[in-house]
Design a protein that fits this description.
Strand order of the largest sheet: 10-11-12-13-27-23-22-17-20
Number of strands: 27
CATH class: Mainly Beta
Radius of gyration: 18 Å
Oligomer: single chain
Order of helices and strands: EEEEEEEEEEEEEEEEEEEEHEEEEEEE
Strand content: over 45%
CATH topology: Beta-galactosidase, Chain A, domain 5
Length: 280
């Protein structure tokens, strides 16, 4: 996709993720190395039908596959490990679809990505196509660049402590974050009561993140000290929400009946002092 100053490469066959996103010649995401599978620390991928971790893969009476063996968790859902189909493609618009049947989950997903003067938009819809109601969730996991001078700001009401497996332990009131590396470096931290708005400032470029729908309530922030990346992940629920009912009051997974949808949208807007020739 190349339109309105945005330049993106989508990877339908690799979980519907994104291997590159640039604006006005500036990298927004860390570019994926040629031939590398998405998962980090580069590009971006979708977490469906749950975001982050499930302890022991537990979802009520069901057990999901443990894919983070060292910590005994099922992490980041099912969709990122399965190909999507390209239903529509144009320079400023790509529609991807996916159908998943993996007990206990049966669902379809629809992802419309558009580049417009108003911004770069990711529009997600997930439909329960199974015969029973199940908890559903979603999240977007971008690996943003983090050059020296990066700042992050957003508002939230609750911040979680976590154990050594990054599973939430307790909740404390907060106002969000607003600062440079001193405010976020080393975090792998969940926030609830997010208002759906965040901003990343880099030298010469600012990125606005505006989420709506199911993706606008919770936010995971990950900034490992040993990698020049910053993950700011809009999510629909708390990590391990089904197994932590008291904490999950701050972000439960939503029980979706057969035929019902979970929907959310993320709009990225960029401000840059130098736009490509011909853009305004």
């Amino acid at each position: 996709m190349t339109a309105h100053g945005w330049d993106a490469t989508l990877a339908a066959g690799d979980g519907g993720g994104m291997t590159r996103l640039r604006f006005a010649g500036h990298d927004i995401l860390v570019p994926a190395p040629e031939g590398a599978r998405l998962g980090g620390p580069f590009g971006a991928f979708w977490m469906i039908p749950w975001a982050n971790r499930l302890d022991g893969g537990r979802l009520g009476a069901h057990r999901l596959p443990i894919n983070r063996v060292a910590e005994g968790t099922a992490i980041h859902g099912l969709s990122r490990d399965r190909a999507w189909a390209v239903a529509e493609a144009a320079p400023d618009r790509v529609l991807l679809t996916q159908a998943v049947e993996a007990v206990p989950y049966c669902y379809t997903a629809r992802l419309l990505t558009t580049a417009a003067a108003e911004g770069f938009t990711l529009d997600l819809s997930v439909t329960n196509t199974g015969a029973v109601a199940l908890p559903f969730g979603a999240g977007w996991h971008p690996w943003f660049v983090r050059p020296p001078g990066t700042r992050l700001s957003f508002r939230a009401t609750t911040r979680f402590t976590h154990d050594d497996r990054c599973l939430p332990v307790s909740a404390t009131p907060c106002t969000g974050l607003d600062g440079g590396e001193g405010a976020f470096l080393g975090l792998d931290t969940h926030f609830a009561g997010w208002n759906g708005v965040a901003r990343i400032d880099w030298p010469g470029l600012a990125l606005g993140i505006a989420a709506t729908g199911a993706l606008a309530s919770n936010l995971q922030v990950y900034a490992p000290p040993d990698k020049a990346v910053l993950c700011v992940e809009p999510s629909s629920h708390l990590p391990d929400a089904p197994n932590r009912p008291d904490l999950a009051l701050h972000g439960p997974m939503r029980v979706i009946e057969p035929g019902e949808n979970l929907t959310g949208r993320i709009n990225l807007s960029a401000e840059c002092s130098h736009l490509p020739k011909g853009e305004a």
